[in-house]
UniProtKB/TrEMBL annotation:
GO MF entries: acetyl-CoA carboxylase activity; ATP binding; carboxyl- or carbamoyltransferase activity; zinc ion binding
Protein name listed in UniProt: Acetyl-coenzyme A carboxylase carboxyl transferase subunit beta, chloroplastic
Zinc-finger ranges (C4-type): 51-73
EC numbers on record: 2.1.3.15
Organism phylogeny: Eukaryota, Viridiplantae, Streptophyta, Embryophyta, Bryophyta
GO biological process annotation, one example: malonyl-CoA biosynthetic process
Keyword Cell cycle applies: no
Amino acid sequence: MSLMNWFEDKRRFGGLIGAFIEKATKGYVLSEREKDRYIKIDTTKGLWTRCDNCENMLYVRFLRQNRRICEECGYHLQMSSTERIELLIDRGTWHPMDEDMVARDVLRFSDEDSYKNRVTFYQKRTGLTDAIQTGIGKLDGTPVALGVMDFQFMGGSMGSVVGEKITRLIEYATRKSMPLIIVCSSGGARMQEGTLSLMQMAKISSVLQIHQAQKRLLYIPILTYPTTGGVTASFGMLGDIIIAEPKAYIAFAGKRVIEQTLRQKIPDGFQVAESLFDHGLLDLIVPRNLSKGVLSEIFELYGSAPCKERNNYYFR
């Protein structure tokens, strides 16, 4: 039987074959939620995963080729920061910035484990120094400054390193008159750093004001699943054009917290990207496989707009 025929049979008898594969692969088959629960298992070596939406079994190799979009229902699964960079930036043009920055345990925070040990663990698990990668590159030939948050590193939480790297990226983009893109994927501020993490919201917003209002340069945030807390309350919603992926969960506080605070029932799906778009909080909802083309067209329109300042990079 050919591989294509095997997959056709899998789709036809989805329930039976899915159950068989799940039993056969056992520890290797984990959904994204289960991966967080069994955090010590190295899921990068697994052959199969499960769609969070339709629960269909997905072959990891084909899933990566499909930009981590489920072939059955079109659901956008979580994507690593490195995969995002490969998706958006032209090959061979990426130049990372501030890779040597690491978090310090100023508060000596400890719960079930010390903050220092947690950071070390996630550094080994993801190969990153913190929850964001920043740098410059070309998007269809256009020079851009890009920051990509990674939810796999402590839930993409915004600590002092994340805030400082974003701030330096914005300042560099402002000096070089480059457009800015930040891909958001975060659970909010990092509680292990207390007030230091909350300060990053104001710091980033202040340099963004210079980039956008004073220098009239373009900033586009891309909101992915999930974008919550302090990221939503600051730079996530300050873009000139705010883009979200389909079905992305975007919120400040979770549904349960809101219901307990307001003491009233909140409708299901009100914090999904489509609902926010209907209420005017987003400008575009763009599928992942079209995002590079859409961004390229936006930059082309922006570059041809009248009344541009002389220091803009399009006029160099």
